[in-house]
Amino acid sequence: MTNLELHAPALAGLEGDLASLRGDCARMVPHWSAPDRIVSLPVSPSLIHGVTVPSRSARLLDAMSEYGD
Predict the structure, then answer these.
(1) Shortest CA distance to 26 belongs to which of 37, 13, 15, 38?
(2) Could you report the per-residue pLDDT of 7-65, keeping only the tens digit for each?
(3) CA distances from 63 to 26, 28, 53, 59, 67 (A)
């Protein structure tokens, strides 16, 4: 029988606080890139079509107080 052991690196601050999360984000900043500016133009409502929401999803959102009230 083969003993397969997988070792993942420990995640720093997995149960940490906001300061550890901010530190993790600060360390990742050099790996992210963002465009200088994004210009979005308004879209005419007549061009928006074909969007359907499953009834299950609509009921779920309706039951959530942040969205329904």
Answers:
(1) 13
(2) 555 555 456 788 888 988 899 988 888 888 888 889 888 888 887 878 888 888 777 76
(3) 37, 37, 15, 6, 8
DSSP class per residue in 50-68: -----HHHHHHHHH-HHHH
In the chain, the N- to C-terminal Cα span, in Å, equals 58
3: alpha, beta or left? (left if phi > 0; alpha if psi -120 to 50): beta
HSE (side-chain half, CA atoms, 13 Å) at 42: 3
Residue-level pLDDT at 32: 86
Q: Given this model, what pLDDT does residue 20 score?
A: 87
- Distance CA(48)–CA(66), nearest Å, equals 26
